[in-house]
Write a structure and sequence with these properties.
The complex is a heterodimer of chains A (227) and B (244). By secondary structure, chain A is mostly helical. Chain A has eight helices and two strands; from the N terminus they run ααββαααααα. In chain A, 83% of the residues lie in helices and 2% in strands. Chain B has eight helices and ten strands. The chains are: A mainly alpha (227), B alpha/beta (244).
Chain lengths: 227, 244
């Protein structure tokens, strides 16, 4: 177990170091996600009054779009240098490589969300600070569910010619339950009087999805990555 | 007890990519302290065979035995004894030479990683460039660094795909000396190369692949280039005659 965690940590640290050098993924995903929110704000906010319940949906759509972009770029980097093969050659459990990549993507998505949440609060008048811990929990759980499947698919498609098209086509239908649970839970928190029991229900559902998705991904990563 | 093996045995290995047959019933054996040259024209199946030997690719049929073990059962313990220098160099251009080697040393769980990394940089004649990003390196410098990456964990089986690419004369000869040293230490080395001049005198065994098939190489006393040409020409002539 110690070796598993060590390898996951080493891979995550490497991914973050590479990203800190290039800043390519952070800049593009943050810019893309912020642009999404801005476009939706122009469309759905009239005379300073946003469409009811739109904020949660816009937040999760932007997270999903930005996450897909980040996933694609992260693995494109490994494909370009063929370094994914070097990772697969490491004498460790291959799921540890998966966990390392997943942690790196979660860190990048956390940065995107740290920018998006205040924007949503500002442009859609969403009470993002009403129940901050619940909001963080919902975002964390939803992002884990989305990124766990996304990391698996992005790694699997790394050698596919039409990977840029295939990734969202495969990813969105499977992660729709996660996005719906995230949207409903966040919408419950963004009400004038936050509905905490409802948020708790959706958070519990997200925990269930996370357990299923992470377990399946860990289980299938090695066979799927053996060519 | 540490995982080890004295012999690599390839038995009737075939590999198909869809309808294309990249390898067709290839069999060969290579013992410890041997350098095997894998020769053949482009697209002959050399890189596919190296990918199978490195466990990155599973054969469609046939099997590869590493001593008493097979890739499917030995898994991570076997990978700890394999070193691969592919045509792509498996280096992160955004990281420095030192960071690249340190990353792989940690990934392999090596003890005293800093000491090993500094030694590897010295072997690659890159000690003074250790803090530079690999993106600024020439192909030859990257090649030397990639070789050290592949050797960092002291592999028993070393698989090299075109290792002389981009190397200047001095670096090429330094690599030859390094490979001879590793052979003397008992490594099994398989080199896929087109550089027959540099490979001449290095190889203990020669295997020629053509269209996925292993050809029999004449044991004449000619140069490596002559023997290779003779082998490929004989195969071409047999193909031109067609099946009888």
């Amino acid at each position: 177990m110690r070796q598993f965690l060590r390898v996951a940590w080493v891979v995550m640290r490497k991914d973050l170091t590479v990203e800190m050098r290039s800043r390519e993924i952070v800049y593009t995903t943050v810019f893309f996600a912020a642009s999404c929110v801005l476009v939706f704000a122009f469309a759905l906010v009239r005379e300073g009054r946003p469409l009811e319940d739109a904020a949660a949906g816009i937040l999760w759509i932007s997270i999903a779009f930005a996450g897909t972009l980040g996933l694609g770029r992260t693995f494109e980097r490994e494909r370009h240098t063929e370094t994914l093969r070097a990772l697969m050659l490491a004498p460790s459990d291959r799921p540890a490589i998966y966990v390392g990549k997943l942690l790196g993507i979660l860190a990048l998505m956390a940065i995107v969300e740290a920018v998006l949440v205040p924007m949503i609060g500002l442009l859609f008048h969403a009470p993002v600070l009403a129940r901050p811990l619940w909001l963080v929990a919902l975002l964390g759980l939803g992002t884990l569910g989305f990124a766990s499947v996304g990391t698996l698919f992005a790694a699997m498609l790394v050698r596919a010619r039409s990977r840029d098209v295939l990734l969202p086509v495969l990813l969105y239908p499977i992660t729709i339950p996660v996005i719906i649970a995230g949207v409903r839970g966040t919408a419950a928190l963004f009400q004038a009087t936050p509905d905490e029991p409802m948020a708790r229900f959706w958070a519990a559902l997200l925990v269930f999805f996370d357990v299923v998705f992470v377990t399946l991904s860990l289980w299938t990563f090695e066979p799927l990555m053996t060519e | 007890m540490a995982f080890d093996f004295e012999r690599l045995v390839v038995e009737d290995v075939s590999r198909h990519f869809g309808r294309r047959r990249a390898l067709n019933r290839v069999s060969l054996t290579c013992g410890a302290g041997t350098i095997l040259g894998l020769l053949g024209p482009n697209g002959a199946g050399k890189s596919t065979l190296l990918a199978i030997l490195s466990t990155l690719l599973a054969p469609t049929s046939g099997r590869v035995r590493y001593g008493e073990h097979e890739a499917r059962t030995a898994g991570a313990r076997l990978r700890a004894r394999l070193g691969l220098l592919g045509h792509d160099l498996y280096l992160y251009p955004e990281l420095t030479a030192r960071e690249n080697l340190t990353f792989f040393a940690r990934l392999y769980g090596l003890d005293r990683p800093h000491e090993r990394v500094e030694r590897a940089l010295a072997h690659a004649s890159l000690s003074d460039r250790g803090a530079d990003q690999v993106s600024g390196f020439s192909r030859g410098m990257r090649q030397r660094l990639a070789l050290e990456r592949a050797l960092l964990h002291g592999p028993r089986l070393l698989l090299l795909d075109e290792p002389f690419t981009g190397l200047d004369d001095a670096s090429g000869h330094a690599l030859l000396a390094r490979l001879r040293g590793l052979r003397d230490e008992g490594a099994i080395i398989i080199v896929a190369t087109h550089d027959l001049d540099l490979a001449e005198g290095l190889l203990d065994q020669v295997a020629v692949l053509r269209e996925g098939r292993l050809l029999s190489v004449p044991s004449s006393s000619g140069s490596l280039r002559e023997r290779y040409r003779e082998t490929v020409a004989a195969a071409q002539a047999a193909q031109d005659r067609g099946p009888r």
